[in-house]
Write a structure and sequence with these properties.
With 400 residues, the protein is mostly beta strands. The protein has one domain: 6 Propeller (Neuraminidase), CATH 2.120.10. Helix content is 1%, strand content 40%. It is built from 1 helix and 25 strands. Strands 10, 11, 12, 13 and 14 form a 5-stranded antiparallel sheet that branches. A hairpin with a 5-residue loop joins β23 and β24. The longest helix is centred in the last third of the chain and has 4 residues. The chain is globular.
């Protein structure tokens, strides 16, 4: 598939409106304006659903948004796309495919990281989808189809890509690799990963979080280091994300539930002060959330953004500015960045439980070189998915 011109057809797809219920509660936090990255040009003809985004900034200030487009959340035609913005996220280009089609067909779920000098790395995973009528998740067992973990490299700012390069890992085809890579202080590439149950609902390896790392520019990889472990074979470490503080400390956050009992736990964090060779025991945030992410703010502070979909009558994306000098969850300021409207959210029982409450999610924030903070996440409204991007306003909680 030929790529369209890099920034052809740039346009504002949507600006924030009352129907999106931008956060007005929870202190002075908020988003100045939300923009849709992609709008289905002909929804009455075909379903084109954007979901699972992340942002990165290139050296020239261009923003890249990586996301998938598919007919539905578990569709067999889920593929990774990029859109670009050269005006700080106000307008976005038409999307272009990251990778060529393969045989047999394979879904793609990638996230991107700028490495400097026009180089962009992508980490993700995919599943071979031969049967078009088989969903990705088993609603009876909570298990998933087999997956492979991949990484790829672009030398031209995301315009073209190397082939998807497979990475071996501990769960052997039942692995979640949904986080973007981060670059550690020693130059290593790293990201947290975890295992999923197989189609029958059984784990193929220990249930924990592991740090996938390459210390030779992607030539070799290992996941020997455990980055989140509760000492309990039933507690999940889904949707983990890393950030690296100025001291080199790596902080990890995860979505934690007891898969045997169904008990939901607060999000937990762990940290490493030795370059990712060892991590602390999990520390509770006290926040009853699910998918989450971290953004380093300078010094020993970070912003945690959390999708709170359950255990609340006010679902939405919440922000927490944390001072981590004492190596504990110390919230200096907090607020609501986006409101999903009144809750609670109801489960779609046709889907595996891990997917059944997904009405919005995967919030993340990138700190731009000029100090601005850009939020992106996805949400669903009236059956249509959207990828939304906007500048975060922390109401003075984060001095630039």
């Amino acid at each position: 598939m030929a790529h369209p011109p890099f920034l052809a057809g740039a346009r504002v797809a949507f600006t924030a409106a009352a129907s999106l219920a931008l956060a007005a509660q929870g202190g002075d936090f908020g988003v100045k304006e939300l923009v849709h990255v992609y709008e289905n040009p002909c929804p009455q003809l075909r379903s084109r659903q954007p979901i699972f985004p992340n942002l990165c900034e290139l050296p020239d200030g261009t923003l890249l948004c990586c996301y998938i487009i598919a007919e539905a959340m578990e569709a067999v035609n889920a593929r990774s796309y990029l859109s670009a913005s050269r005006d700080g996220g106000k307008t976005w280009s038409k999307p272009w495919r990251m990778f060529k089609e393969v045989d047999p067909p394979e879904t793609e779920y990638f996230k991107c990281t700028s490495l400097g000098g026009g180089r962009v790395a992508a980490l993700g995973y995919g599943a071979v989808r031969i049967d078009p009528d088989q969903p990705q998740g088993n609603p009876e067992t909570g298990g998933l189809l087999p997956h492979r973990v991949y990484w790829a490299l672009s030398e031209d700012g995301g315009r073209t890509w190397s082939g998807k390069r497979p990475i071996d890992e501990s769960w052997h085809a039942h692995t979640e690799a949904s986080a973007p890579l981060v670059v550690l202080k020693d130059g290593a590439f790293a990201a947290p990963i975890t295992g999923f149950p197989d189609w029958s609902g059984k784990m193929t390896s220990r249930l924990c979080g592991r740090m996938l790392v390459s210390r030779d520019g992607g030539a070799t990889w290992n996941d020997d280091t455990v980055c989140m472990d509760f000492g309990d074979a039933s507690i999940s470490c889904y949707e983990q994300r890393f950030c690296v503080l100025d001291s080199g400390t790596i902080v990890d956050i995860g979505w934690n539930e007891d898969l045997k009992t169904g008990r939901r736990l607060p999000n937990h964090i762990t940290y490493s002060t030795d370059g990712g060779r060892t991590f602390s025991r999990p520390i509770s945030t006290g926040v009853m959330g699910q998918a989450s992410s971290l953004c380093a703010l300078g010094g020993e502070r970070f912003l945690a953004v959390v999708a709170r979909r359950r255990d609340t009558d006010a679902p939405g994306v919440y922000g927490y500015v944390c001072d981590f000098r004492d190596r504990r969850w110390n919230v200096a300021a907090q607020g609501v960045l986006w409101s999903a409207g009144p809750g609670p959210i109801k489960r779609d029982r046709k889907m595996a439980e891990v997917f059944g409450f997904l009405k919005f999610g995967q919030p993340s924030v990138v700190r731009l070189r000029d100090g601005r903070l850009m939020l992106c996440f996805w949400y669903q409204k009236e059956g249509q998915y959207q990828v939304a991007v906007g500048e975060v306003d922390l109401g003075g909680a984060c001095a630039r």
